[in-house]
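Why should sequence recovery work at all? Because a backbone constrains its sequence more than one might expect. Tight turns favour small or flexible residues, buried strands favour hydrophobic ones, and helices have their own preferences. The token representation captures these environments compactly. In the example below, the structure is given first.
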């Protein structure tokens, strides 16, 4: 079909018809229709000026070795303890991303269930499975299966 836009009496109508016939435009070509148009989403916790939802972290898990620098009760979770530790080593778990590899030699904050720290003291070297839980706006490193590797001599 050939439409001459210069001589068309109704240019808007002609343009609309032309757009419907172009590949990729219009309902048959995958264009935006009321059914496919993305509706804005808001949640009660977000304001209209903030982006809605963030992508959660990819599946990740590392086996880390770290020296405990300090321990304190977590202010948001009564059954957890915040452990500041010097990350000594990090090994990826098969099939998972290693989010702690780039942090070796740095201090890291770990969230550990308090019952796993019964015999752990400041200065101990521990080994634990660590997973980052969060998104691009922030998160926390959760440590599980915490074991004491060495205890400093007094």
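From this structural description, the recovered sequence reads:
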């Amino acid at each position: 079909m050939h439409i001459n836009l210069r001589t068309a009496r109704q240019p808007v109508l002609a343009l609309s018809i032309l757009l419907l016939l172009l590949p990729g435009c219009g309902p048959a070509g995958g264009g935006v229709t009321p059914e496919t148009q993305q509706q804005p989403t808001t949640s009660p916790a977000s304001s209209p000026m903030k982006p809605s939802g963030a992508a959660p972290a990819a599946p990740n898990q590392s086996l880390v070795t770290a020296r405990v620098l300090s321990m304190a009760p977590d202010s948001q979770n009564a059954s957890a303890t915040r452990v500041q530790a010097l990350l000594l080593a990090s090994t990826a778990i098969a099939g998972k991303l290693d989010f702690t590899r780039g942090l070796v030699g740095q201090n890291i904050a770990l969230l550990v269930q308090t019952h796993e720290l019964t015999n752990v003291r400041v200065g101990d070297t521990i080994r634990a499975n660590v997973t980052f839980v969060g998104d691009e706006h922030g998160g926390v490193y959760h440590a599980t299966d915490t074991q004491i590797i060495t205890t400093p001599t007094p």
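A few observations help interpret the result. DSSP finds one helix and five strands in the chain.
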